[in-house]
Amino acid sequence: MYEREPGVFDVYSGERYLRVIEECNEDNAVSEGRPRKYTFFCSGTEFDLYWRRYFDLDRDYASIVHGAVESGDTYIAGACRKYSGIRILHQDIWEMMISFIISQQKQIPSIRKCIEGLCERYGTEKSTSVERNGIKETVKWYTFPTAEAIAAGGLAGLDGQSGLSLGYRQRYIYETAVQYLDRGIANDALEAMAYDGAKKYLLSFTGIGEKVANCILLFGAGFVDAFPIDTHIKDILYREYYVKYTANNGKETILPQEKLTQADYEGLTKENFGRYSPNRGIVQQWIFAAEIE
DNA sequence: TACCAGGATGCTA
DNA sequence: TAGCATCATGGT
Question: Which residue is nearest to nucleotide C10 (CA to C1')?
Answer without folding.
Answer: A110
